[in-house]
Structure prediction request, 355 residues.
Amino acid sequence: MKKIVVIPGDGIGKEITDSAVEVLKKVDEKFKLDLEFETYDAGGTAYDKFGLPLPDETLDACKKADAVLFGAVGGNKWDNVKAELRPERAILGLRKGLGLYANLRPVKVATALVKNSPLKPELVDGVDLVIVRELVGGIYFGDRCESEIKNGVERAWDLENYSVPEVDRIAKLAFETAKIRRGKLTSVDKANVLATSRLWRRTITKLAENYQDVELNHLYVDNCAMQLCVNPKQFDVIVTGNLFGDILSDEAAVIGGSIGLMPSASIGELTSLYEPIHGSAPDIAGKGIANPMGTILSAAMLLRYSLHAEEAAKAIESAIDKTLAEGYRTADIYSEGFKKIGTAEATEKIIKNLQ
Ligand code: NAD
Prediction:
């Protein structure tokens, strides 16, 4: 039996995780995966019930699970809650508690949606890349000083540091990811300026000796930011540190045309967590119009990376492609000439299209 902890969270979280669980249950029937689901609270919903954004019970259940499916947390309702109790704190607590050291963000543009991208159709048709971002190190977790006075001048500073084991761990995951894809890995750094980047580059170059079947190249982050706009099809897997990954993964997400479509995986030492890249969208919560595809594609990643059920993962991805090719669109990706559908109908169509 494979236990999946579901954390709907706030806003549209329940609507989209309900959809993904419905799809997973159908896939379970077809592929005999023996899935079991347990639902737990986090975020504002947990704060309202227990006075905490991440109750111990939720974190403990995640640690014991085979995988976690997460909706989204946050909303204006909790704007005045103390910083350490805000719903978004649940995400940091899960990252720390589960040792989520890598974030995987695939960007694959369905042919039916190339016109939704802000880039020219010929540039995005066929884009299929994954950004592997280091998630628990670098400048976001280094020492910092909010304010100090030296020689009468106020300054602040943040320290970037990476160790060889930290780079090795994320690089191994990136090489393994490239191996099961098209065998191409681009490491992104700023080695012409930063010492941490030079250590990053040395470590990855050395590790490449163990992965002769993966072609490695290095790019400076400023060049990578440009290349994602001018020729995103050149990339297969991109690996980078926390700060550069934060920025590049949001840039790459835009290529897909709507944040409602984008999935992600956070790979952990104990359990991995899967969630759409968008937030709780309080503006559309409860209206039944949220796009569930990002969450359903996150469920496909869960099957691929945590349960190694590749065939089942592909079945979900193909069902979404087919639903889009049939002309069905949720409001966020709708344009004239297509058939507008809500969350429930989109889920129904995707289930119908499962091979
Ligand atoms: P958001 O991603 O929730 O919404 C941005 C815009 O995109 C909104 O107009 C929303 O309606 C639309 N949108 C988002 N997901 C959609 C979907 N599936 N289908 C259709 N439209 C969709 O970002 P925001 O408005 O800046 O943040 C709202 C709340 O979510 C805040 O409290 C924020 O802190 C939180 N947040 C949580 C996470 C997370 O849980 N991982 C991530 C980002 C933001």
